[in-house]
Amino acid sequence: MIKNVYPLQFEPILKERIWGGEKLKTVLGKAVESPTTGESWELSTVEGDVSVVANGALKGSSLMEIIDKAPNEILGTAVYEKFGKQFPLLFKYLDAREDLSIQVHPNDALAKERHNSFGKTEMWYIMQADTDARIIVGFKEKSNANEYVENLKNKTLLSILDDVKVKSGDVFFLETGTVHAIGAGLVVAEIQQTSDITYRIYDFDRVDAQGNGRELHIEQALDAINYDKVDTYKQYDKVVNQSNAVVDCPYFTTNFVPLDGEVSIEKSAETFTVYMCVEGSFELDYNGEKYHYKKGDTVLIPAAIDSFVLNGKASILEIYIS
């Protein structure tokens, strides 16, 4: 048992990547030391990368430990009933100094069969975009495995993939099977199923300092890919001091909250809620305590917390499981 739950922050898990940069430090204020830091895992129970509480009485405890002690209080009654003591989502910030590899994620059935894992449905919120920054999402027109393989062999894969210019505030929802890549010059907030299963299909012929290319998963990807044309861009309202629906799927619900002033929040005990601060700053007033958050912070509101007050001027992603 955990006596008193409260809003939880976790130590960022920083990941060096061949395509990473320094914007997680300069834009989001993370304690980045490497000039090629590509990811900050904010909330994770992926094996080997389990988040550790950074604040309050539970500081130093892992997310797995506190869920094990109080699953209903942390996860929520409905989430616990559906997922057991698994934390079903993974939250990240990414800095793409260079293009990420072109990749695809398997669906639940394929991931379960091959890796005993969840699939990887995800969404991207563009926090910062350099001029002419773009992403790759799906095919320009309906394709097939033969056309895809032929273009891959001829190094013309980019010619059949959809290339989309992006700006700050854009949201893209990527169902499993969507071929995709985050382009250079972007800082992205990413929400996804708890999974680290990625099939890398093209990496722009990059090599590391030792001259080695990264592993590709061309054969595995063949039956994981959705060859249809897909619509990934999500339009959403931005009504101030309200939760504006952005994504609602079986795996997570994401709302956009443009906070300007004070808002009282009441929620059920069926699910946890996560806030990602993507612009500005705010405070959360709960049980007589004030908790302060700024751009780049992520906070887990345990399910047992059913009412609190937000105050400040910020853009917030609000995530929970319906």
TrEMBL record:
One of its GO terms (biological process) is carbohydrate metabolic process. InterPro entries: Carb_Metab_Reg_Kinase/Isom, Man6P_isomerase_Firm_short, Mannose-6-P_Isomerase, MPI_cupin_dom, PMI_typeI_cat, RmlC-like_jellyroll, RmlC_Cupin_sf. Zn(2+) binds at residues 105, 122, 180. Residues 10-116 form the Phosphomannose isomerase type I catalytic domain. Binds 1 zinc ion per subunit. The active site is at 200. Coiled coil: none annotated. Signal peptide: none annotated. The keyword Transmembrane helix does not apply. The keyword Metal-binding applies. Keywords: Isomerase, Metal-binding, Zinc. Its cofactor is Zn(2+). GO terms for molecular function: mannose-6-phosphate isomerase activity; zinc ion binding. It comes from the Bacteria. Residues 245-320 form the Mannose-6-phosphate isomerase cupin domain. PANTHER family: FRUCTOKINASE, TRANSCRIPTIONAL REPRESSOR MPRA. This is Phosphohexomutase. It comes from Flavobacterium sufflavum.
